[in-house]
Amino acid sequence: MEGDLGWWAVPLAVLGGAIRVSTPILFVSLGETLTERSGRINLGLEGTLVFGAMAGYATAVMTGNPWAGVLVAALAGAVFGLVHGLICSMAKVNDIAIGIAMMLLGTGLAFYFGKPFIQPAAPDLPSIPFGWWSDVPQVQAALNVNVLFLAGIAAALVLHWGLRATKPGLILRVVGDSTDAARAMGLRPAVIRTMATALGGAFAGVGGAYLSLFYPGSWNEGISSGQGLMAVALVIFARWQPLNCFWAALLFGGAGALGPALQSVGVTQGYYLFYAAPYVLTLGVLIATSSPNRALAGAPGELSITK
Amino acid sequence: MRPPVTGIGADPLPAGALEVETVGMTMRFGSFTALDDVSIRIAPGSFHALLGENGAGKSTLVKCIMGFYHATAGQLLVARREAEIGDPRDARALGMGMVYQHFTLVPSLTVAENLVISRADAPVVIDWAQERAGLEAFMSAMPFRVPLDQPVARLAAGEKQKLEILKQLYLGSRFLILDEPTSVLTPDEADEVLGHVRGLCQAGEISVLMITHKFREVTAFADEVSVLRRGRLVGQGRVADLTHDQMAAMMIGEEKALRPMDRQGTRGAPVLELRGVRAVDRSGLKEISIDALTVHAGEIAGIAGISGNGQMELMEVLTGQRALRAGEVRVAGEAYGATRQEAQAHAVRYLPEEPLRNACAPRMSVIENIAFRSFDRNGKGPRFWLSAAEMRARGRDLIAAFKVKAADPEGPIAALSGGNVQRAVLARELTGAVRLLVISNPCFGLDFAAVADIRARIVAARNAGAAVLLMSEDLDEVLELSDRVLVMSEGRITYEVPAAEARVAEIGHHMGGHAA
What we know:
Chain A: The chain crosses the membrane at residues 6-31, 43-61, 67-89, 96-114, 141-163, 190-213, 219-238, 245-265, 271-289. Chain A: It comes from Paragemmobacter ruber. Chain A: It holds the Pfam family BPD_transp_2. Chain A: Keywords: Cell membrane, Membrane, Transmembrane, Transmembrane helix. The complex is a heterodimer of chains A (307) and B (516). The relative contact order of chain A is 0.22. Chain A is built from twelve helices and two strands, in the order H-H-H-H-E-H-E-H-H-H-H-H-H-H. Chain A has helices at 9-37, 45-63, 66-88, 95-114, 137-142, 147-165, 167-177, 179-184, 189-213, 227-237, 242-264, 277-289, and strands spanning 127-129, 144-146. The radius of gyration of chain A is 20 Å and the shape is globular. In chain A, helix 1 packs antiparallel against helix 11 (242-264) and helix 3 packs antiparallel against helix 4. Chain B has 516 residues and is α/β, with parallel strands linked by helices. Chain B folds into two domains: 20-251, Rossmann fold (3-Layer(aba) Sandwich); 270-511, Rossmann fold. Helix content of chain B is 32%, strand content 24%. Chain B has a six-stranded mixed β-sheet with strand order 6-7-8-3-9-10, sandwiched between helices. A six-stranded mixed β-sheet of chain B has the order 16-17-18-13-19-20, sandwiched between helices. A four-stranded antiparallel β-sheet of chain B has the order 2-1-4-5, covered by helices on one side. Chain B is globular, with a radius of gyration of 24 Å. The interface between A and B is medium-sized, with 24 and 28 residues.
């Protein structure tokens, strides 16, 4: 029977899910990597993600152009990051507490301004049908890759290279690892951290635009379901490495698709347990890769959680 | 970016070593005068030593020169021109650099990355192939080298110190301030480093102002010496004209330092025994392997070795910070896992290196830190309700007895200077019965009087019957204190000799890992 792949549908759905679901997680974790590499934690990215989703969707509805939506989402994210960064630059302010406040503020503002945009439909972001060679609809669906996913890969590569081989990248790492050393070099850590947080916010905003403008592709209040927070946790899992963020996001996205895929091939018992797969997987890998004898490799020295 | 400051007059500074002179430099903090009318001239190409105890104003003087502080009064002349140095960047633009006592390297960056990013003119996009070639060429011209691809966090203290000096040379500084540059180096390394620095001075490439407590280094390498005491310049002259005793007299004035006491008593029963101990080192790549090590009551066993040869890890094994892979540690015949109960039962005490990090809660008060061994005991047994008054009284007594200079005993211990943190921890660890004392680099970065004081207390503990295991990167210290000298190299004990028969050359040979 055409279109019925039996159990083959499961890995295919996992692959498709990995590509589809991972994009916002990838963007948020890349943004958080930037921020944390500068020595600050921005837990507010969940709020930024939701606000970015709303702002992007609203802009796309009003202008008819999804790319304008992505741009506005990025700008909104940058503003959120800037606010977080500026507040944290003041003395005796805890970045984690501010992050939680910003998370609540972001989601609250998004719900408030987003009410009128739950009904109207916005144009979707374009995607590239890499599955054109196949007649199997599941293959086509799985390989229908959104442009932002490719942009995310490019961003991960650029960040990986930039942190290693550019002056701004090295400066970011200096500031993140030792405030004293940075000051001795005549750098201004607070300014650099604020910029890194703003840029990180912009990344999260783009991730939000992907949510509302491609997958799931509409604006509603439950759109993120904690993906922003999960992405922040993934940064630790990825050991603050942009390329690892990519793999971690793929893994997480793929594991998330496992539950629905099993359900679709007719597994009726226990499939809901697989909805927890991403979390179980993350925990498992974290435990397997950590050691009581070694410090958490790669953790920026100025992070308030590792100090 | 501000344009570099070149002092008054538009002419560029002369090439080669810089002449730097302070004229009537005075620095007041409120009513406290940290620096009082200090005039020092460092001639171009000279190696100038700055002697003084902790708190004598050496750091203040140097910070005024480098632009961290703005002197209340006085002038700074660079190449005989008045220089206004607003911040360290101005100093750097003039070709003045400083090697700090605390490290200013970025731990997670590799050596190569640290060097490149420290350059003001680092390119926006770094061509690593080209930079590496440049760094290799630079390193090959140096008398010592540091592995370029290692993250600085993996380097031992001695290697970091070398890298700090290399960094300044790499940056092309023409006037260099060295703050206790050899504290963690072996005598050979120190001679090598300072010899090279002196060579650069004689070649007219740099002038050097070195803060130090080691008279030997002053005599061997410096041309001139200035001595500070309580913010005043109390002596100055050519090194060739001064004896060690004269310099010491200028430095400490009338106060008499405690001399290490005579040794008394005889070696008792074994207290600490290590058998077949195996553990991974900090990088996880190498192994620490101690086949047998015994320390007896009433003796000081000193482990000499170049930093990074496993001393840090051995200390961590003994303090319970590092898990054993095999073997056993016994104290007084019983298996010892370094739990609080075991340490208390056997009266095991520690003074680890970097005590602020390894033996203190930095933000808790001095008094609380001193109470860590005793806060939950009321003389006989454990207690639940703490007695703040008792803690305070006990803390104040110990602060006085061990001469800890703490402006505010209720303030955080992190606010104390290194020597005073060391004293505070010693006060805690040496109080009460001590059966085993494990010490690592007890005098790192301390001044003359503090060193003598702390060494006297260690010998006193030994005389009272404690078994002392001393690990130190300062060979002189090991030789002065130990009854038995051991050498650690590449994670193993490679040599053992009674102190009476110890010969520096032989020990140095084993420290370098060259002996068969």
